[in-house]
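Hey, resending since the last one bounced:
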Amino acid sequence: AQDRWAVLCLFQAMDAAGKDGTIKHVFSGVNPQGCFVASFKAPSPAELDQDFLRRHIAHLPRRGEIAIHNRSWYEEVLVVRVHPRILAAQRLPERMVTRRIWKERLEDIAAFERYLARQGVVLLKFFLNVSPEEQRARFLERLDQPEKNWKFSASDVAERRHWKDYMHAYEEAIRATTAPHAPWWIVPADRKWLTRLIVVGAIVQALEGLDLRYPVLSEAERAALAEARAALACRSTSATARTSTRRTGPASARAGAWRGCGSSPSPPPCCSTRRSPSTASPPRARGARSICAP
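The structure tokens again:
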């Protein structure tokens, strides 16, 4: 409602660390009108022809929104670094691909995150740090339980052979890009309940630091609200009167009108008419007489 800040949560982890489950449990209570998740898989041929940040920029949050990126631009200095063939598929000019490319990309990422922070985007980066033993146990669980077979991929086992390379890439990426405006949270991921608790705590702490509040109305806006309240109250009174008339009949309505003219509940003589029993249908004006008593 304040429409001043945006929040961007990045989740990075090795396979089976629990990114999907953490996102599901942490954000299940958030209003979906102000929150969305973007999951980034392997880039398409069209995305490979673009700069590596472009597909992520398309899913940045607007002010007043929370965006969750399941994997992020850090894949470009993690999986691409571990597997150079992916870098070759990007068809960069040869003079751009030097020994400094990973350092340069980390510099670009740090500069981009600094830019986002200056635009009012609160950046929270989570690395769910699962141990190789726990990852192995979760892979076996996916194989043993038929309802979880769909989660398993043979490439997951192949990636385990590059564990040390990945840890080295993560270490350099985190050291080069952690900053007060874009902090990294290294979250233990062997215990799912603890992982989710730490992530929730980090997000709540960040939101509380923003001093969020509902917009304050100007004097003119308050005056307009007072006029609207008066108009609604008048219409409500009229509607109540019409409802009362339908329920109690015309006689009761006339009595209410008489009470409005004076203190006596009885109608004045000049306002009461009763047809004489001798008058026949159709009624005639001369067949009515004034009375002073009901």
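Residues 252-265, 268-281, 283-294 have pLDDT under 50 and may be disordered.

Sorry for the duplicate.
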